[in-house]
Amino acid sequence: MKKYLFILLLILVFLCPGQNAFAQTLTDVQDHWAKGYIGQLVDAGVISGYPDGAFRPESSITRAEFIKTLVVSRGLPLKPRVNPTFADVETDHWHYPYIETAVAAGIIVPGDYIQFTFDPDEPITRVEAAIFLSRSLDLIEESAYTGFDDGYQIPQEFRGYIRAAKERGLITGYPDGTFKPWNPITRAETCKILVCYMYEQGKGKGLVTLSYDHQLPSVYENAFSVHKAYGYPGVNYVCTSSVGSEGNMTVKQLKEMESAGWETASHSANHLHFKDLEVKDIRNQLERSKLWLEQQGLTSENFAYPFRFITPNPLVLEYYNSGATSYDKEINIRPVNPNKLNRYYLQDPGREEIKAVLDKTVAEGGWVIFHTHNVYKGSQKPDSKSINQDTLQFLLDEVARRNIQVVTVKQGLQIVAGK
Ligand SMILES: [Zn+2]
After folding, report:
1. Which of 56, 95, 112, 180 is the most buried (most CB within 10 A)?
2. Ligand 1 mean position to 4 CA, how many Å?
3. Is the per-residue pLDDT at 161 higher than 60?
4. Ligand 1 centre and the CA of 380: distance in Å?
5. How many angstroms separate the alpha carbon of residue 395 from the centre of ligand 1?
6. How far, in Å, from the CA of 306 to the mean position of ligand 1?
């Protein structure tokens, strides 16, 4: 019996998606700035660590190794050719099919190389990596200016590729405005640009949810149209006993939003603080709000704890698929705990704060569930628990620019469960 249990556990370990299972075992990345990027790519099988358990994030990467990661993350079928293109890339070598695939896809242009030598085992420079990246996505801009202060060091005919990669956010350069084109790219830097490259192809792992508490009419009046312009859904966490009364949204409005892809979820019936309630009263809040949502024909799968979140309550999962917090400024790193979904509280946030949390979502492959209350018109100064339309629009722009998938809580839970 024990043996079967062990086998079952092994199967479960290998079936559980997105838990950074392989990355967890790397010995030298746990405190590295690129840990999240490395983990995502190692788990996706794009790049691997060394047999001794190290990843060597600061080591260089060879041309052949870089091309392999690019071909794998692009998902190009391998196209070996009968006649080798390069004199120093031989048919029996592991890198042969990857390099020939890259040649066939127009990523490597043989004419760029002297006497048909590719030097597959030489470290790849930052500029070459950026050129390959842009070519693999057919990106080029007519520009003699790369966007970097030291771009003049790059031959003119390649500058448009660098510019295009920078414009798409695939490469960022250094804080001093330089790109250092001829430096070798490190394995850690490679992971960062490849994660951005996955997003550019719509294959990023990160998720964004926007949720609004308390059925406030300003969500229908001021947020719904901004969401619609992007085609992004949102989530309304409603206190069911207040819906339809003065100063609250109506069932009709919630339904209209649902038909545009939004989700309605419970924020309890009366917004009473769970810590002051007996078990039977907690059950009453959970059950009553669920029943009401069901009776109205609204979605009723998920729940957000009323008031500042303290400890997950196991009763929540008897009625709902998740219990979301209302206070933490954290993103959910996989695996997520459905009984404590962190919600990142948007309280009149600054633009730098928004960019930083979205960058973290990309870097970690995490799920950020934003949460706020009112949405004020235009650039009107919001109250401390809320935001305005300009900030919401900025946030959605930044999400779109990074190609992060926007989901409801219901959709997000399915994705993180691998369904
Ligand atoms: Zn609340």
Report:
1. 95
2. 46
3. yes
4. 23
5. 22
6. 5
| Interval between CA 43 and ligand 1 midpoint (Å) | 37
- Percent of the chain scored above 90 by pLDDT? 82
Residue with tokens 């920078």: 166
| Span from the CA of 419 to the centroid of ligand 1 (angstroms) | 30
- pLDDT of 15: 38
**CA 353 to ligand 1 center in whole angstroms:** 22
CA 96 to chain centre: 33
For the CA atoms of 172, 175, 181, 184, the dihedral, rounded to the nearest 10 degrees, stands at -90
Indicate the residue type of 202.
G
Ligand 1 geometric centre to CA of 213 (Å):
6
Q: Give residue-wise pLDDT tens across range 22-68.
A: 667 899 999 999 999 999 999 888 999 999 999 999 999 999 999 99
| Mean pLDDT (whole number) for 234-240 | 98
Four-point Cα dihedral 418, 195, 329, 340, nearest 10 = 10
CA of 304 to the centre of ligand 1 (A): 8
CA of 236 to the centre of ligand 1 (A): 11
- Positive/negative CA dihedral, 102, 106, 108, 110: positive
Question: pTM of the prediction?
Answer: 0.88
Terminal Cα distance for the chain, rounded: 30
Q: What domains can be seen in the chain, in order of their start residue?
A: 2-200 (no CATH), 207-416 (3.20.20.370)
- What average pLDDT is seen over the chain? 91
**What would the pLDDT profile of 189-212 be if each residue is shown by its tens digit?**
999 999 999 999 999 999 999 999
